[in-house]
């Protein structure tokens, strides 16, 4: 069981051959092995980023190690972070056939034997990220403008090493989350909600839906959830990253402003329902067995419909878990990324060459007709001249 980066680690371990037989059930809260940036293919890029951040200017790993030994603890911890920390620099790497992570997470998710799983996300996963953006001189109060939204889309798509056709995917994301969301009737386009969706879809919702699909294909129990309960005791009306963990374990976050004068019984009911379903899943591989007598039946998800439970004080079973995220990032973007741009450029070049050849052919034909007309004219002129001389 894990939450956030912990869920990504649990998901990786559950798919690792080294952990074969150690996991009988898995619960992932707002994180999976397929989450962007969970692993790196090699440690090389991370090594050179470490060199740059410590200002070592090393030429090889040996020099970097010597520089690292001379650094004080405070100097190491006080390195200057990236202005757009979308991706963690120092993460696990794919360490080969005999390693803990023998292959990339996508391949492991498709090929490895699976265990029963419960996984899900909150409704507004990236709401806290938007608050952080507001603290970084990005004005979110009066409505995000188009240039800022385009910059956020550009940074998210261009800096992700998992993509090949970055420019194609950037254009697709611009269309999906920016250009089609601008209403000309508004003096200031409100893109806050769309950009929040983009971050939530990319980081959390799409990877969760894709992993659920891979598990469903092996016909193991897959229980998807969306934590949608909005507490009346929070000043914010968003169901942000970590809300499911807070209610399940009754945690209190220091950054939250809470109030106790409202309907706290609903919060308590959500905690009791969620906790009981988790316990039932661990005991019976079914969150809602008949013995529990719930008024709803949380069914296992299927690849075609992505059935999921909306967790509130009155849970309901729905279909189409984060469907926009699933269709765009798991289908359309992966299709764009598979396009061979090199061949497209070659086709465009050949098409241009063909056009040039066609133009040259028409020019030659025109010249041939022109000279043919001249020859015919000369022949007619000579014939007529001979006839006139004979008459004389």
Automatic annotation (TrEMBL):
Keyword Zinc: no
InterPro entries reported for this sequence: AB_hydrolase_fold, CarbesteraseB, Neuroligin/BSAL
Residues covered by the Carboxylesterase type B domain: 1-326
Taxonomic superkingdom: Eukaryota
Membrane-spanning parts: 359-382
Keyword terms, alphabetized: Membrane, Transmembrane, Transmembrane helix
Family from the record: Belongs to the type-B carboxylesterase/lipase family.
Name of this chain's protein: Carboxylesterase type B domain-containing protein
Organism encoding this protein: Globodera rostochiensis
């Amino acid at each position: 069981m894990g939450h956030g980066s912990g869920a990504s680690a649990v998901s990786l371990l559950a798919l690792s051959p080294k952990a074969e037989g150690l996991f009988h059930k898995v619960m992932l809260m707002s994180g999976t092995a397929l989450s962007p940036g969970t692993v790196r293919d090699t440690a090389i890029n991370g090594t050179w980023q470490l060199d740059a951040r410590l200002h070592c200017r090393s030429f090889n790993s040996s020099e970097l190690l010597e520089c690292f030994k001379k650094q004080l603890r405070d100097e190491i911890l006080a390195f200057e972070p990236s202005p757009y920390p979308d991706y963690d620099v120092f993460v696990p790497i794919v360490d080969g056939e005999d390693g803990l992570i023998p292959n990339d997470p996508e391949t492991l998710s498709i090929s490895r034997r699976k265990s029963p799983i419960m996984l899900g996300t909150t409704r507004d996963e990236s709401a806290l990220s938007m608050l952080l953006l507001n603290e970084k001189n990005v004005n979110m109060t009066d409505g995000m403008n188009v240039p800022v939204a385009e910059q956020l889309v550009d940074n998210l798509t261009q800096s992700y090493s998992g993509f090949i056709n970055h420019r194609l995917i950037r254009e697709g994301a611009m269309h999906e989350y920016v250009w089609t969301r601008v209403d000309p009737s508004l003096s200031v386009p409100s893109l806050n909600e769309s950009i929040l969706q983009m971050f939530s879809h990319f980081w959390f919702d799409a990877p969760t839906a894709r992993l659920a699909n891979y598990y469903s294909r092996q016909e193991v129990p897959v229980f998807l959830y969306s934590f949608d309960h909005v507490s009346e005791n929070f000043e914010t009306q968003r169901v942000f990253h970590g809300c499911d963990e807070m209610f399940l374990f009754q945690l209190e976050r220091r950054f939250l402003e809470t109030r106790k004068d409202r309907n706290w019984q609903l919060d308590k009911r959500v905690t009791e329902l969620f906790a009981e379903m988790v316990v039932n899943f661990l005991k019976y591989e079914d969150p809602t067995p008949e013995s529990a007598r719930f008024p709803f039946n949380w069914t296992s998800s299927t690849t075609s419909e992505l059935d999921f439970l909306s967790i509130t004080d009155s849970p309901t079973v729905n279909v189409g878990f984060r469907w926009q995220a699933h269709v765009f990032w798991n289908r359309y973007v992966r299709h764009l990324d598979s396009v061979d741009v090199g061949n497209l450029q070659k086709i465009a070049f050949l098409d241009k060459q063909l056009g040039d050849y066609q133009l040259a052919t028409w020019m030659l034909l025109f010249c041939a007709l022109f000279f043919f007309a001249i020859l015919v004219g000369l022949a007619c002129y000579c014939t007529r001249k001979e006839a006139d001389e004979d008459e004389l």
